[in-house]
């Protein structure tokens, strides 16, 4: 497959160079699925022979101990931003998947206790913080590659300005670099007052609705969509949904204008990191051929959460963020009915304080029947995937969703609202042919949740059918290989693409990338 490119100075063949820019990268710093996806994707691309470099901020919460290699070098770069020239330290390190990482160290902006904000609100200077990510990532890559990479791949609104900075650069090589913008959730756009523009290196010629402005505000997500060569999102169904007018996110027209450049590539999961036959967080290890270890995991989960297991009740697991998107309000409404039906609930989630208190109240009211742990991610989440019988995801919309994929891999059966990536990854169970991996809600309502869970519980009474469904889920191919190949094909196509799509006129802005 390789080589993909030729070195400009030596003319020798070399692998494709991809600069990934993201606000999260597991295991260094993650707040949700984005961090996991960056880890899995960069690893898979690296294994395919692509020269990947991930640029991400060094936060106060970054787990530097998760780097396997010692930090290689720290070099200062200077970037013109925030009405000033700021110094950013670039620390190069390597992940355990052998991917090179550039950690961008700018303590006044990034050295904080969280990635995005406090429990109450986002940081007020997030516009400047993530503009800095975009600009510093390009400078750092310039230092490393002595010029631009073949592909700039920016993820979510936080990284989107990088694409505009490159496209509007005074440096021709950077203006020519091909770019891909991936949005993981169009509900989060990064919208800021237009008065902040000069500070962000965005100047008058592009401050209009055909470029970086949406509804009178600077919109980072829109900027990524408008200035990139290709736009992708994280499942095929979601790529269609975002073009539908009823999907109320305010950017339908902008996306429609770029619909021939928009593709959905469904996320995989890192099957090495998510492997029940090797997972040390579990009470027992097992695989699809011999899943008996799941019994011990189920018993251990019930004991850990204090659930009463007399009469062998089904355990319904939920690992989520407490937001409207995830349908938590609908779940709250049906808890009494599910408990009456004899189900047990194992809920692991963080988010909105008001829902957190409600869940605490319900777990108090239904002691031994409803357990709530206010936690994010590992290792309790892994024990839920391994020990629950069913895994509920009643999301109103879901760009891709990783929880249902982890659940299937660990043998709990997903019950989902079939939207976005949930529809693409969970195949509804067919009793006649014993095919499929889970259940779809017939409607995204409290009644729809109850009905789907009841259907699942009824089928669970037939052990043979149930075990087949569990096996179907555990053996489905969820690895990154196919998705990474799709990204690779896209990169290849771009590197050979000519001419480039027409875009708003490139205008030199303050964000010059001319090397210092
Ligand atoms: C966002 C989306 C989620 C997706 C994840 C990774 O968190 O809401 O559906 O799985 O990004 O792409």
Q: What is the CATH architecture assignment of the largest domain?
A: 3-Layer(aba) Sandwich
Bound molecules: alpha-D-glucopyranose
Per DSSP, what share of the residues sits in E-state strands of 2 or more residues?
15-25%
- What sort of overall outline do the alpha carbons produce when their principal axes are compared? globular
Residue windows where pLDDT falls under 50 for at least 5 positions: 498-516
Here the CATH topology of the largest domain equals: Rossmann fold
Structural class: alpha/beta
At the first level of CATH, what is the class of the largest domain? Alpha Beta
Number of domains: 2
Q: Tell me about the largest β-sheet.
A: 9 strands, mixed
Helix content: 25-40%
Radius of gyration using CA atoms only:
23 Å
The beta-strand count equals 20
Mean pLDDT: 92
**How many DSSP H or I helices?**
17
Strand line-up in the sheet with most strands: 5-6-7-4-3-8-9-13-14
CATH superfamily of the largest domain: Glycogen Phosphorylase B
Span between termini: 36 Å
